[in-house]
Write a structure and sequence with these properties.
Chain lengths: ~130, ~375
């Protein structure tokens, strides 16, 4: 069973969102997503300053098996991509909710349309 | 639900992620594909290849049958146990399948074909076998394990009864022999030394666990794919199929034209293709920019006219041993030492290198 921390928000496309103390957000992919992808070998993170709409493909994660897009859970501007993933893409496998964060964003408004941990867990169960 | 090998329950018990492969539910990894890959390069790993199809061919004219059926020449098989890698072609020279055939005696050859092609292979082979009075038997009573890596042979030998141990260790590369109820061959699909073992299905789980107990790591199809690609070994359905000929698939070395009297299926078509001039060649690529090469990505060759400048990646991956992306590709014959690949809309630089990339634990490409 994959780990779904209670204090984060989620999307149906398996991203997580953490609201930081200053109101910025940190975004990554869930434990379930990294497990399905397998060993990550290459991550393309977005450049700072890029403006995103919710649902935009803003990063690429590639495992040994396949490449997948990562979608912006909220609209906003990219503050930074995680520089550590360039040399250590496996951080997404080992610490999906910690050192494996993909980008930090300044959200364009209030967060909306995200799932709670319980709702995301129900979504995973329904996806089988 | 797909078909199950005799080891299905054991894979599930060991936590494998199961995927569909050619209609079979097979383990893609048991945790980390990269760790499984390194285990095979550095020590020993075990793969379930029971989905592959073992066929015994028997009859007085069995050698003649294979001489007609296969693009490689079974006349090379003079010593019992010797194996030969070959393509089986259609009349147009397209590849129906690639396979390994073992010469056991003048009335018994054994052939191992791919899982996803077994039904069409058997139908094709039976059509030709009938003309030679050869009987083909699909050995669904057997399982097949591939134990691969620098320490694989020694670890398998520890499990063998004392009377078979020396015989197994004495097997030369690309030879197999019967050892009691087992057929043991020094073959594989990883670029490492090792054995492939064909054994009664009901023994497979016990042997697997015993090998695990000797430190042989369970490995899935994911690692099998990265290992074979580092070894630059073709995968049927990706690198070649019925729409491609072996000469433009990196398999010219497996086609034997030496005996002018041997009229193997597909020979005339290949000779016409050669006479007309081949348009493509098959190359190994090393990605110089950051990214990952994947099958079906477009290869672009600078300096060639539009319409004649494109090729295609047939297999691509990230090489765990080299920590770079590698690929096999079919490209215009005029391509030089560097090409570009369209990776998700960006043209990345790749270099044509000499295959294989990795063999016996060593990186051969700089």
């Amino acid at each position: 069973m994959s780990n779904v921390p209670a204090d984060l928000k989620y999307t149906k496309s398996h991203e997580w969102v953490r609201t930081l103390a200053n109101g910025d957000v940190e975004v990554g992919i869930t434990d379930h997503a990294q497990g399905a992808l397998g060993d990550l070998v290459f991550v393309e993170v977005p450049d700072a300053g890029k403006t995103l709409k919710a649902g935009d493909a803003f990063a690429v994660v590639e495992s040994v098996k396949a490449a997948s897009d990562v979608y912006a859970p909220v609209a906003g501007a990219v503050l930074e991509g995680n520089p550590a993933l360039g040399s250590q893409p496996e951080l997404i496998n080992t610490e999906p909710y910690g050192g494996g964060w993909i980008a930090r964003l300044k959200p364009a408004g209030a967060l909306s349309g995200l799932l709670s941990a319980a709702e995301y867990q129900a979504h995973l169960a329904a996806e089988g | 639900m797909g078909r199950h090998t005799p080891l299905y329950d054991l894979h599930v018990e060991q936590g494998a992620r199961m995927v569909d492969f050619g209609g079979w539910d097979m383990p893609v990894n048991y945790g980390s594909q990269i760790e499984e890959h390194h285990a095979v390069r550095r020590d020993a790993g075990i793969f379930d290849v029971s989905h592959m199809c073992v066929i015994d061919a028997r009859g007085a004219r069995v050698r003649e049958f294979f001489s007609k059926l296969l693009a490689n020449d079974v006349a090379k098989l003079t010593v019992s146990g010797k194996a030969l890698y070959s393509c089986m072609l259609n009349e147009a020279g397209g590849v129906i399948d690639d396979l390994i055939v073992y010469f056991l005696n003048e009335s018994w050859f054994r052939v191992v074909v791919n899982a996803g092609t077994r039904d069409k292979d058997l139908a094709w082979m039976r059509g030709i076998a009938a003309q030679y009075g050869v009987e083909l038997t699909e050995r669904t009573d057997l399982a097949m394990l591939a134990v691969q890596g620098p320490n694989a042979r020694a670890k398998v030998a520890q499990l063998l009864p004392a009377e078979h141990r020396d015989a197994a260790l004495a097997l030369e590369v690309f030879f197999g022999r019967e050892l009691g109820p087992w057929f043991v061959a020094r073959t594989g699909y990883t670029g490492e030394d090792g054995f492939e073992i064909v054994l009664p299905a009901d023994e497979a789980a016990r042997v697997w666990r015993a090998l695990n107990g000797h430190g042989v790591k369970s490995a899935g199809l994911g690692a099998r794919d990265t290992l074979r690609l580092e070894a630059a070994m073709n995968l049927y359905g990706n690198d070649m199929d019925e729409s491609q000929n072996p000469l433009e698939s990196g398999l010219a070395w497996t086609v034997s034209f030496d005996d002018p009297a041997r009229d193997f299926v597909g020979r005339k078509a290949l000779e016409s293709l050669k006479a007309a001039g081949l348009a493509k060649k098959f190359v190994a690529l090393l990605l110089e920019d950051r990214g990952v090469l994947r099958g079906h990505q477009k290869v672009v060759v600078a300096g060639l006219p539009e319409g004649e400048n494109a090729g295609e990646i047939t297999s691509g991956t990230f090489s765990p041993t080299m920590e770079k992306s590698i690929a096999l590709a079919r490209v215009p014959r005029a391509a030089g030492a560097s090409v570009q690949v369209d990776v998700r809309g960006k043209l990345l630089n790749a270099r044509v290198v000499k295959a294989p990339f990795v063999r016996h634990g060593k990186i051969l490409v700089s």
